[in-house]
Each structure stands twice: as C-alpha cells, then as structure tokens.
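Take a look at the protein record below with the fold in mind.
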Amino acid sequence: MGDVASARLFYERAAEAGDGQAALRLGETYDPNFLERAKLRAIKGDPKTAASWYWRAKELGVAEADILLKGVTK
C-alpha cells in the first residue's frame, strides 16, 4: 500500500516551501480518482483537500493541476 502518511508529510513540507510538483503530488494522495487507479482502496480520499492542493499547484505554475482539479470538482 505504501506509506501515504509519510509521503503526505514530505510533500506538504515541500509544497509549503513553494514546490508546485509537491503540491500536485500531495493533492493526488487525497484524490479518490488517483487512489482508485493506484489501487490504494484502503486510503480514504478527500476531494476538497485534493482540490485545495491542486489549486495551490496551479498557482505555483503546474499546468497538469488544472486537469486534475477538474476531475475532483465535477
């Protein structure tokens, strides 16, 4: 399953320091669509938190964030 809690901590620190890719990856750890594709069904997704981090990634210039944002807000 992987250590999602540790990944979230790592990505959150990097995202708060201005790393757009980290914000994107952090959003994915909350994105129910990503978690399903990654077969991480034991991890509960949170679309609102995912959207928040995708917005941050978008603000930091990550173009892919816009696509993922649409997926969690539809």
Remarks:
- The CA atoms of residues 48 and 68 lie 12 Å apart.
- Residues 4-16 form the longest helix (13 residues).
